[in-house]
Amino acid sequence: MKVFSNNRQKPKNNNGSQTSRPVWTVAITANLKDEFTPDLDDPPDAGAEFDRLETIQNLANAIKSDGHQVVFLQADKTLPQAIINLKPDICFNIAEGISGDSREAQVPALCELLGIPYTASRVLPHAVSLDKTMTKRIWRDHGLPTAPFQEFSKIEELENLELNFPLFVKPAREGTGMGIDEKSLVHSMPELRQRVEWLLKTYRQPALVEEFLPGREFTVGFFGNPGSPANRRTPELYDQDGYHWLPILEIGLANSISPTVYGHDAKSIDIGDTGAPDYLCPADIPSSLASELIDLTRKAAEALNARDISRVDFRMGADGKPYLLEINTLPGLNPAISDICIMADAEGLSYNTLIKEILYLAAERFSLPFNMVKWDFAKKSAKFINARS
After folding, report:
1. CA distance linking residue 39 with residue 43, whole number of Å
2. Which domain holds residue 156?
């Protein structure tokens, strides 16, 4: 347990008096790369989704800037007792989980059990969103566009293939581009069989197979929740539906180490280094496409009941239309390299503001007290965020 203390002094107004906003004990829950030791039979990219200590420090500094005390708790088997001992007012959760096919839901489930408020989506959205096949089934049932797909748990099931080559193959329950490289794109049954067999053995989970989308790749990020923002701490940041849409980011793969695939190898290269993708934000796209991507993102997120912050990935099809790839209900918050942070920076939104908005959105959902300023839309309209600004 690491404490980022500020002596719990309440922030003061300009006249020197203390504000009425309470000071909270905020627990940051996360899994650290530096403390992860893979087992011998783990995949080669095991632990890729875990965070570095500098990310925790940046989060702590942002939260402390509003007067709160911050304590870091490692999201491992020691976490239940650590939370019981600390009794935090709220958890700022970025934990990916350490095992299981719904591992991103572990900390939210624990917080629900103990009655502790926490940031980002609740248990079910996290459990579902990590299962890419289940997510695509839900989107398909909602009439949202996603590439034709099948899931295979056994190599023998490939006899029932109903898709058209070329195909894209990836683990059904991983993130951060794990299990994805240039061999993920297959053009024949022998290539498909070899890739599925490798995934089943290496990741010990089903393989998701989709018809390949050859077009440009975009990601759309937002923070907010459905409903009026009138009583939020900074209502001017949100549209009247309760969302703040960040500038759309295009993943340019032409100069990437893997020019057709945005996988783990490409994601692990620092921005600007040789072999890294180009992160183009705001994306150079027509306003009509930007509006369509935002509308699809909202519908995709609401179909899963995502909350506080999320990011949705798209690829353009051969028909020139956007198709949903996946949703990240627990997007990375490293200020230097994470997609959400790149988008916020492109807009001119500070990292501290981004993090505090996530914190206070969760506080609002759980009815934690803070200064809520009434916002009269008749007198002053909320600031609408243009996707291209």
Report:
1. 9
2. 148-211
Q: Which of 173, 218, 209, 174 shows the shortest CA–CA distance to 191?
A: 209
Last residue of a domain, one of 161, 192, 211: 211
The H or E element that residue 110 is part of is helix 106-114
Assess whether 152 and 273 both reside in one domain: no
Crossing angle of helices 53-64 and 351-365, rounded to 10°: 70
Length of the chain: 389
pLDDT in tens, 186-196: 999 999 999 99
pTM of the complete model beyond 0.85: yes
CA distances from 354 to 16, 248, 364, 372 (A): 26, 16, 15, 18
Residue 115 has pLDDT above 70, yes or no: yes
> What is the residue type of 227?
G
In a domain, 141, yes or no: no
Residue 325: name the closest of 338, 315, 339, 310 by CA: 315
* CA pair distance 148, 163, nearest whole angstrom: 7
Could you tell me if residue 139 is inside a domain?
no
Pairwise CA distance, residues 229 & 34, whole Å: 39
